[in-house]
Amino acid sequence: MPIYTPPLRDMQFVMHEVLKVSDEFKAMPPHAEVDVDTINAVIEEAGKFAAEVTFPLNISGDTEGCVLDKATHEVKPPSGFKDAYAKYVEGGWAALSCDPAYGGQGLPFVLNQCLYEMMNSANQAWTMYPGLSHGAYEALHAHGTEAQKALYLPKLTSGEWTGTMCLTEPHCGTDLGLLRTKAEPQADGTYKITGNKIFISAGEHDMTANIVHLVLARLPDAPKGSKGISLFVVPKFNIQADGSLGERNPIFCTGLEHKMGIHGNATAQIAIDGAIGTMVGQPNKGLAAMFVMMNAARLGVGNQSLGLTEVAYQNALAYAKDRIQMRSLSGVKAKDKDADPIIVHPDVRKMLLTAKAYAEGGRALQIFCTLLLDKVHSHPDEKVRAESEEMVALLTPIVKAFITDNGHISTNACMQVFGGHGFIKEWGMEQYVRDNRINMIYEGTNTIQSLDLLGRKILGNNGATLKKLGKLIGKLVEEEGVNEKMAEFINPVAMLGDQMTKFTTEIGFKGMQNPDEVGAAAVDYLRVAGHLVFGYLFARMAQVALREIAAGNTDPFYGAKLQTARFYFAKLFPETVTLMRTARAGSKVLMDTDLALA
C-alpha cells in the first residue's frame, strides 16, 4: 500500500526562508497579522486532513469509481467520498482563502496552495470536487451581480454547495467559438439554457445539496465566434426567494466518461434542456468572465501534478531503500544481505532525483505564484498589484504545462523504480501515472499553453513582461555573481537569461514572416522558459542553504537541498540546449510533410 507524508519542512523552507511570505504579508492589510506560527499551524492541520482523511480513499476510489443512475440522473461517488467531504466542510477548509464578507477566513492564497498540493498528493480525484468550486467562486466574486454574490458565494465559501464550469461540447473543446448551447431571454430577466456539454469534472454527485454550474452559451442575436459567448450561472436546484432550494433545474448528467484515470471523479456528460440561469457579466463577454475561472483552474492543474510528483517520489524512495537487487557496480554495500538495495544504482538515483527536483522546483514556483496572487488581491499599492498580475499571467501557462509535463516524466520514472511491481495496481504507482496524464490535456492542452505563453504573453507585448522576469534574475545574479560557492547555480541561469532575449527575438522575427514558425517552436520554447524559472528559484534556494551552512546550521535539510540543486543543474537544466536547437529547426520539417502524412 502507498505511503504519504506531507512535505511540511520543504513548504516552510520556501515560504519562510526563501520567499519570506510573512514579511510580504505585513504590507497587505488583510494579511498583516498572518505570521510564521499561524502559517505553520494551518499547513500542519491541512497535512493531517490530507494524509488521514482523503489519502486512505485513493486506491479504493479508483477501483470503485462513480455510478450513474440513468433513471434519476444522480451520481454516487466512491464509498467514503461524501463523508470525507463533510469533514472538509466541518473543518472550514473550503473557506480558508475566501472573502470574509461571504463567510470566508480571508487567509492568504499561499496557504490554500499548500492545502491543495497535499490534497492532490493524497487523492486528486476527490480533491477535484471542492477544487472546481474555487474557480466558480472566483468568477462570481469578480463578475457576478450583487444579487448573485449574495445568493451563491456564502454557500460556495462554506462548501455547502460545489461549483463546476461547463465549457466543452461534443464538437468543440478549446475552440469555444464553435459552441452551440443557446440562451433564450425570459420576461423576468432570467434565461432558458439549452445544449449539451461534455467532460464536466465533478458535474454531478450527492456530496452537497446543490451544484452551481457556470455555463457558456449564446444569445439569439450573438455574433459568431468567441465574441458571441455569454456566461450564465445555472444551479442544479433553483433557489427560492428565502434561499431555500426549489424545483430541480433541467440540467442533468446523462453519462459518465470511461477514463484512463481519476476514476473517483464524476466526469459528466451534461444535457441542458431549458434550465433557468442568470447572466454573469455582460452579454457576449462571457469568455472574459470565464477566464477568471480558467486561469485559477490552470494553476490548480499544475498543483495536481505537483502533488502526484511528490507522492510518487515518496513511494519510490521508500521502495528503493527496501528492495534488494544485484550488487553495486562499485562494490558490495549491504554485506549482511544477498544483494544491495536498488538505491545504490546510479540510474535509480537519477530517476528518484528527477522526481525530487521537479517536486521541489514546482513547489517553489507554485508558492511564488500564489504570493503574487495575494499581492494582486491585497496589496495597497496599485503599481505592485498591476505588476504582480502581469507576472502571474506570464507564469500561469508555465505552471500548467511545465509542471504537468514534469509530472508525467516523474510519475513514470517513479513507476520504473518499482520494476515489474510498478505495473501492478496494489502498489499504487500506475494510478499516479494514469491520474497525472489528464493534467497535460485539460484546461487547455499543454500545446495551447505554449502558444499562449509565446504568442500572447511574450510576443504579444514585444517581450516586455519577459524583460521584467529578466530583471528579477539579473538582481540575483548581481547579488551572487562574485560568490564562487554560488557559481554552479548562478552561471547557468545567467547564461540562459542572456540567451533568452536573442532566442525570443529570433522566433518572433521568423513568426512575423510565417506564423507557423511560432506554432512549431512554442512547446520547446515553454520548456526553456520553465527551466529558466526553475533555475532562478533553485538558485535562490541554494543561496539560502549555503548561508545557513556557512552560519553553522547542521540541519541536513540544507545539504540535501544543495545536492538536489546540483543534480537539477547538471542533469535536467541542460535540456535547454537541445530545446533551443529543436525550436530553431523551424516549421518546414513539420509542415512540408504531406507525403509522410498521406
Characterization of this structure:
This protein has 598 residues and is an alpha+beta fold. 57% of the residues lie in helices and 11% in strands. It has 18 helices and eleven strands. It has helices spanning 8-18, 21-25, 36-54, 58-64, 81-90, 109-143, 146-158, 286-322, 346-378, 382-417, 429-437, 446-458, 464-480, 487-513, 516-550, 556-572, 575-584, 588-591, and strands spanning 67-69, 74-76, 161-166, 182-185, 191-201, 210-217, 230-235, 237-239, 245-248, 251-256, 267-280. Strands 3, 4, 5, 6, 7, 10 and 11 form a seven-stranded mixed β-sheet that branches. The protein has a two-stranded antiparallel sheet with strand order 1-2. Helix 3 (36-54) packs across helix 6 (109-143). The longest helix is centred in the middle third of the chain and has 37 residues, at 286-322. It is globular and about 80 Å long. The two termini are 48 Å apart. The mean pLDDT is 97.
**Number of DSSP helices?**
18
Main beta sheet, described? Answer: 7 strands, mixed
As a percent range, the share of helical residues equals: 55-70%
Q: Approximately what portion of the residues adopt beta-strand conformation?
A: 5-15%
